[in-house]
Design a protein that fits this description.
By secondary structure, the protein is α+β, with helices and mostly antiparallel strands. About 55% of the residues lie in helices and about 15% in strands. It has 5 helices and 6 strands; from the N terminus they run ββββααββααα. Strands 1-2-3-4-6-5 form a 6-stranded antiparallel sheet. Helix 1 (about 50-55) crosses helix 2 (about 60-65).
């Protein structure tokens, strides 16, 4: 464990607290308290290794969740390391049990929307709509043609009647 002290990171908004944090254990973290806590505003970020110990997921999987947008996290140390918050991990664990993550719902919707079965149904629907529109257009043309023919016939009969009178 490192002794008390603070180190200013590469950017002034990143403060890495390397204080000995004995006694402060993240809820759900059974092995050891975090060594590094990155503070940005009100949020305290923990490493993926610590998040993995807390959640039971692997650090690689948590990184994949962050990159996929399913778990909130930040890239730090010249965009090399990922960090997340305890609250984000706990929220993800809670939501994954109920299957109701917000972004997970959007991704499931996109996956279902662009599935081969849904796409084929959409293509079939588009074809049927095109057939109906074409049929209505054909009926409209028949109507216009019949009105035109009726108008010409009426006009020719009127001329014949005028000639006989």
């Amino acid at each position: 464990m490192l002794s008390t002290g603070g180190i200013l990171g590469n950017h002034s908004k990143y403060i890495i607290n390397t204080t000995n944090l004995e006694g402060r254990v993240l809820s759900g973290c059974k092995k050891r308290p975090p060594i590094f806590v990155l503070t940005m505003g009100e949020k305290k970020y923990i490493t993926l290794k610590e998040a993995a110990e807390m959640s039971g997921y692997s650090a690689d999987y948590l990184g994949q969740l962050i990159r996929g947008g399913k778990l909130h996290g930040k890239q730090v140390f010249l965009n090399v390391a990922w960090m997340t918050t305890e609250d984000a991990v706990l929220d993800y664990m809670k939501d994954s049990k109920t299957g109701s993550t917000k972004q997970g719902f959007i991704q499931q919707f996109k996956k279902q929307l662009f599935s081969p079965e849904t796409l084929s149904n959409m293509y079939e629907l588009v074809i049927w709509v095109a057939v109906v529109i074409f049929g209505l257009f054909a009926l409209f043309l028949v109507y216009v043609f019949s009105v035109s023919v009726d108008h010409r016939l009426e006009h020719s009969y009127v001329e014949k009647l005028q000639q006989h009178e």
